[in-house]
Write a structure and sequence with these properties.
By secondary structure, this protein is α+β, with helices and mostly antiparallel strands. Bound molecules: adenosine-5'-diphosphate.
């Protein structure tokens, strides 16, 4: 007897399955069939690539046995099977970070939570929604010993050696008293059709049905054993587009995504002439949970002539399209392609290029609410694309959106350029910590006054790198407003004049602040604020914050320019101030409060507060 304790997280999960996830229980059938189909896929691949299995006269199949008398369902496959170690690792523990994330993400809303089951790869455990006695009898292809894994869904499981002829897995599920509804053929068939119709292998149901022979008095009704295929067993993507309805696509999406929502968009393409391949891609309405994790799982399955090859090749699409779910089926790759051959493969590179274009073109065409949904979920990934996918930069620039100083919501470059000065062909932008900081920035004042739109890029880490890389949008040039002169009506001579007039003041402030600032100067970009700070874009460190962050270092501070608004009463008074102590305090206050307006922190907060207190006391 080999009794084992479930890993703690699984214990938690099992409790959840048995006690709280009451809605949508039928999905356990989908989850088990999906596991069986994966196991058959794996053996199919071994048969093609491993000489040991070459001659076997085998074809994949799933068998569901409905046993009313025994109150049980059996779901059996002739797939790759599991050995003792696999059982321990796959069913007894969860290696993936998934379960913890799953438990953390539970909302308490039963319907939503059961939707999460598939996403987190805890499919097998869904069986405990309907059963307290589960046995997994399984034999791994190429090995002699079979094993039985059994559990009542509490804290323990047991693995013992058993005998079994064929490789593959049998899931024996004793149903709870109140779950008898799953013992009718009609119910099982409905569930299979709903979720697993396009699993590429036949799913056979075996059941007993009343059959009457003879007439009148002679009539005898007997239970007769019958078998019927429950699914269409066609690979959906291989069916011509014209024969498919939206429902077919949605159903298949749900079987891939393990969810029950509709996709935002699907695109089905068959490419012929030269290379031949079919792709079917879906864009989910809600980003996959693990999209922003380094260990995200790929959602693209690669097939060769309908034979499954792999679902963990993250190179099939560019990384920034990791939210796309779907299938690639190539006619040109050899059937016995090994996973190693897939690396740097020309055929795949060509498919990837074609697929990427198609997906981006489809995204570009999204309109209204769909476009908004897309932007809300995936805008940051599109920015990631801008700095990683040079070939598709133009398409990506047509998709990406930003907040704007003059508009509500998100605007595209096309929106911006349709409104902006078509003589100048300049796109103004500003990068900052948050939308609020950007909107309140003194640097915007001159643009607001002149009614010039500025794009507000509020994802600082990403935008700091991406914005300068965009450079141009068609004939338009992007301009960071912190690095250029503000729009105003003053001539260069007039500016020179003002600069001279305040030279004594700017020199004196520079003397107080020393090396902390690169230069103190007057500006015409401000209207209501007395001062602002702008970055030194000529510094070799400009725009390298992200690089330093990635190396785990904070960037050495680059000196800032302090700019003063010569029209502001405070600056005019400061120019005439005779008290040197107060002057020094004011110089620092001007600098530190300008930093605060840009979302930067004063270097010495205590000193900042003390200076304000001193100046305020004086003023009172
Ligand atoms: P997932 O299928 O998302 O990985 P599951 O909890 O459903 O999560 O299954 C865990 C693992 O157990 C699978 O990844 C697979 O390795 C193994 N497994 C489950 N069912 C079968 C089966 N019928 N045949 C072979 N292996 C299986």
């Amino acid at each position: 007897m080999a009794k084992h304790q479930f890993q703690t997280e699984i214990g938690q999960l099992l409790k959840l399955m048995t006690h709280s996830l009451y809605s949508n229980k039928e999905i356990f059938i989908r989850e088990l069939i999906s596991n069986s189909s994966d196991a058959i896929d794996k053996f199919n691949y071994m048969k093609l690539t491993d000489d040991t299995f070459k001659d076997s006269n085998w074809s994949g199949q799933v068998n569901i046995n409905i046993d009313e008398e025994d109150n049980s369902l059996t779901i059996a496959d002739n797939g790759v099977g599991m050995n003792e170690e696999d059982l321990m690792n796959n069913l007894g523990t969860i290696a993936k970070s998934g379960t913890k994330a799953f438990v953390e993400n539970l909302t308490g809303d039963a319907k939503k939570d059961s939707n999460l089951i598939g996403q987190f790869g805890v499919g097998f455990y869904s069986v405990f929604m309907v059963s307290e006695d589960v046995q997994v009898i399984t034999k791994k292809a190429g090995e002699d010993q079979a094993y039985k894994f059994s559990t009542d869904g509490t804290g323990e499981f047991e693995i013992v050696p058993v005998t079994k002829e064929e490789h593959g897995t049998v899931m024996y599920i004793k149903l709870k008293e109140e779950e008898k509804e799953f013992l009718t053929k009609a119910r099982v068939e409905t569930v299979v059709k709903k979720y697993s119709n396009h699993i590429a292998y036949p799913i056979m149901m075996h059941f007993k049905e009343d059959e009457t022979t003879g007439e009148g008095e002679e009539a005898v009704t007997k239970k007769v054993r019958k078998s019927e295929q429950a699914n269409a067993a066609t690979a959906l993507w291989s069916v011509p587009k014209a024969e498919l309805k939206k429902e077919d696509y949605v159903e298949f999406y749900q079987s891939l995504s393990h969810g029950d929502d509709e996709p935002l968009k699907y695109l089905h393409n068959k490419v012929e002439g030269g290379q031949e391949f079919t792709t079917l891609f879906y864009i989910p309405k809600i980003a996959p949970m693990d999209m922003n994790r380094a260990d995200y799982t790929s959602n693209i399955k690669l097939y060769v002539k309908r034979v499954f090859i792999t679902d963990d090749d993250k190179e099939l699409l560019p990384t920034y399209l990791r939210f796309v779910i779907g299938v690639i089926d190539s006619e040109d790759l050899p059937l016995n392609v090994s996973r190693e051959i897939l690396q740097d493969n020309k055929i795949l590179a060509n498919i990837k290029q074609n697929a990427t274009k198609k997906i981006l073109q489809a995204i570009k065409k999204l309109k209204g609410e769909d476009a908004d949904t897309f932007t809300a979920q995936y805008n940051n990934l599109i920015k990631e694309g801008i700095y990683t996918d040079y070939i598709n930069k133009d398409l990506l620039l047509d998709i990406v959106k930003y907040k704007s100083s003059t508009e509500e919501g998100m605007v595209s470059f096309a929106d911006y350029t349709s409104r902006a000065d078509s003589e100048k062909k300049e796109i103004y932008y500003m990068v900052g910590e948050s939308e609020q900081v950007l909107r309140n920035s003194p640097l915007l004042e001159a643009y607001n006054k002149a009614n010039i739109e500025v794009l507000l890029m509020d994802n600082k880490n990403e935008d700091t790198i991406v914005a300068p890389m965009i450079g141009e949008y068609g004939e338009w040039t992007l301009k960071d407003i912190t690095a250029i002169d503000a729009p105003d009506s003053k001539t260069d001579e007039e500016k020179e004049e003002i600069s001279k007039e305040f030279k004594a003041l700017t020199d004196k402030i520079k003397e107080v602040l020393g090396e902390t600032v690169k230069e103190v100067r007057t500006t015409s970009r401000l209207t209501s604020s007395p001062s602002c700070v702008v970055k030194d874009n000529s510094s070799p460190l400009a725009g390298m914050e992200e690089m330093f962050a990635q190396m785990g270092k904070t960037m050495p501070e680059t000196p800032l320019y302090l700019e003063l608004n010569p029209e502001h009463a405070m600056i005019k008074k400061l120019d005439k101030l005779e008290n040197d102590d107060i002057f020094a305090d004011m110089a620092w206050i001007l600098f530190d409060s300008a930093k605060l307006s840009e979302g930067l922190e004063p270097k010495d907060k205590a000193a900042f507060a003390a200076r304000i207190a001193r100046v305020a006391t004086e003023a009172l």
